[in-house]
Amino acid sequence: MTDTPSSSPSQTEKSRVDGWGETIRTIIYAMLIALVIRTFAYEPFNIPSSSMVPTLLIGDFLFVSKYSYGYGSTGTFWRLVPFSGRVLGHEPKRGDVVVFKTPRDNSTDYIKRLIGLPGDQIQVRQGLLYINGIPVERTRQEPPASADSEAHASYTDYEERLPDGVSHIIREEGDDRALDNTDVFTVPPRRYFFMGDNRDNSQDSRTTTVGFVPEENLVGQARFLFFSLDENARFWQFWKWPWAVRWNRVFTKIK
To answer: The pTM is what?
Structure first.
């Protein structure tokens, strides 16, 4: 009877090293694939503020398509590849919900609605939006459009219809707040003008905090929600999900 030869210590050690090497290579490949997807295709974001209520709520998680407007050095490559403008670019459309890098530091992500295109004249008078001197139609919503935690008797929701036919819901505390009467903003070439849907609670292009946004600062278009939690739970508190998840918002398109 012939005994089966056992592996030598050196062979066992070599197999163990090869196994670890394969695991490390798999992890590196997975990270590289995730980085490419995040840079060029889709990137997840979460909503930390109420500036886009009622369209987006605190605790919403969404995907932004990075390819919608092409790729800019600030919005996509973090200035590691310096160039002006965008490559493979597509013109943003008025009414799009867009993530961009604020011009103040070219690093902080903001999410707002695109209101003014290059060459447009934008003004707010007594709470009413004017684009190129023409008032934008808005229709009061009764009851308010969404029953989120920000809803209150002192707020009024309106359906606003932009000149290109895009309709969305905005929220107003009144028509006499700080940002309800502005000068006329003429949007420069290769710049864009953004406003939050929560019109009286938004730092946007009406303020010096944001101002006009260069085209290279556009990160991408907000496409759809993939998850949403109310303010009573954090993402990692999975045991609260059955009661904290806003199930009616999961996998919904952003308009």
So the answer is: 0.82
